[in-house]
Amino acid sequence: MRLSASLFMLLAAFMNGAAPGAAHGAEDERFAEFVDKTLDRYWQLNPEGAFAAGYYKYADRASVPDAAARAEQLEFDADSLAALSRFDPKRLGTANRIDWVLLRNKFESDQWYTNVFRDWQWQPSHYNVGDSFARQLNAEYAPFDVRLKDMLARLQSVPAYYAAAKANIENPTLEDTTIALDQNQGALGVFNDELVKSVDASKLSRSDKALFVTRITAAKAAILGYVAFLTDLKARLEVGGARSFRIGKELYAQKFAFDIQSGYTVDQLYRMAKAEKAGLHERMELMARVLWPKYLGSARMPNDRLDLIDAVIAELSKHHTAPRKFVETVRKQIPELEKFVRDHDIVDQDPTRPLIVRETPLYQRGFAGAGVDAPGPYDPTANTYYNVTPLDDYTPERAESFLREYNDWTLQVLNIHEAVPGHYVQLVHANKAKSLVKSLFGNGAMIEGWAVFGERAMLDAGYGGNTPEMWLTWMKWNLRAVCNTIIDVEIQTGDLTREQLVRFLTREAFQSQTEAEEKWRRATLSQVQLVSYYNGYAEITALRDDEKARLGKDFSVKGFNNRFLSFGSAPVRYIRELMREGE
């Protein structure tokens, strides 16, 4: 792949004596101009992505994912790659050399996804207008009437959008068809009576108000048409003929290279994860033996290590919040985490960028139970939401299983991971980074890796009182990241079955039945993403350890964390270069 050549060129630049630090010569100035022009053109082609990034110049535009749009995107990618090739990486400062590689990876990745992976054909969940219109309603980038005018212009494209979606779908997976159906039904909620009332109460002209109602009606009809299309498609796929969700070794290795940009190969990471799983089991056994008398008294300890650990975890899991209080419990924990981070000098926070905990919007449900929805770097002052899915629709049995998984200790780790000092704090820092490229085209392994790394940083600082309960729970949670890598590789490149996965996760990762079943669903809807947690954590931990050895007494936790996060969401391997050489 050309990515390999890109990486080779970057490494060659370093090895051939390129000047360290941030150069500010003519080549850097020319590169900055190229980036500005290229990003603007990219956002013209991807107005929904522009809006999510906080770039509102094209807020009145909507894309239609048809063949013409793909051809235009491919032409842009080819032109951009040709323009990049005219820069000499050795003449760019360190930060720009890495941006050069990231942009090259981005454009090559776009080409690969369109021409080789072709998920636009077999993943119907790609098509959903709910999120982009909901963002436009919620983002206060302009007065409400102006936003309504922008939305009015965009609504006109919704019927064509879904017509293109239906034309694109070919040989899809049953799993993705199912979630696409669920999420597009949720998208209908965006175009509800409240929106119509808001339009009626606005200062739009009478003709615009009438046109708005007409276009909302047409948009809802288009969504309903797609829902009907998916309903029929799902019924046919359930009978037989659905595409396998397994992508195979060759595509997996290629996707891993583009998405993760790791310092490891797939095979190396898989072997590391297997070894780490064994090590965690050893440490968890020691902690379980400490806790056994407290929770199980004089009961006989099992001879089997996994049974011993599982028995103690089962006792801890009985301590959890009530289903109706789940969202509120999460909400109350955020200020406590923020205070601990301040008191223990773990990383800088920004009180002017508060986190808003809310129930997950319907159109975003079905993939994960909790997650941060952050603004883009062009509009860093916009609201950051922590979406938490309530358990209202769960049966009592399913809710109990879920809450045993997210018990009183695990829920704290989840909130560390997703919010403080995890994703929320990291993305606030990323939006302040000097490089738009590193923030816009964020590396998933760095982002997820930081969240896992942040968990360990909190416990190392004494969070949870250094209790064996907290440490055993964190080890179980960390085991999840490790096992995510194992199962993703084995599912997507092998033949691991649902039954085998559930048995593995309940037996060796100590997960509940519900959690294991949800992981199967997630693993059949995505590829490679599940390995990002452990990959990023392993690379960040190795970098931290190297910096401690290099700096000695001058090393500080907060200093390392602040500097690491200052470079945006770049791959860890390149942040290592930036931290060593400066910008």
Provide a compact summary of the structure:
The protein has 27 helices and three strands. With 583 residues, it is mainly α. It has a three-stranded mixed β-sheet with strand order 1-3-2, with helices on one face.
Features:
single chain, mainly alpha, 27 helices, disordered N terminus
Question: Can you walk me through this structure?
Answer:
This protein is mostly helical and 583 residues long. Helices cover 66% and strands 2% of the residues. It contains 27 helices and three strands. The chain has helices spanning 2-15, 26-45, 47-52, 67-84, 94-117, 119-122, 130-138, 144-155, 158-168, 174-187, 193-201, 206-239, 248-260, 266-296, 305-316, 326-343, 396-405, 410-418, 423-430, 436-440, 444-460, 468-493, 498-508, 513-525, 532-551, 557-565, 572-581; strands at 355-359, 370-373, 384-388. The chain has a three-stranded mixed sheet, with helices on one face. Helix 10 runs antiparallel to helix 12 and helix 16 (326-343) crosses helix 18. The longest helix has 34 residues, at 206-239. The chain is globular, with a radius of gyration of 24 Å. The two termini are 29 Å apart. The relative contact order is 0.10.
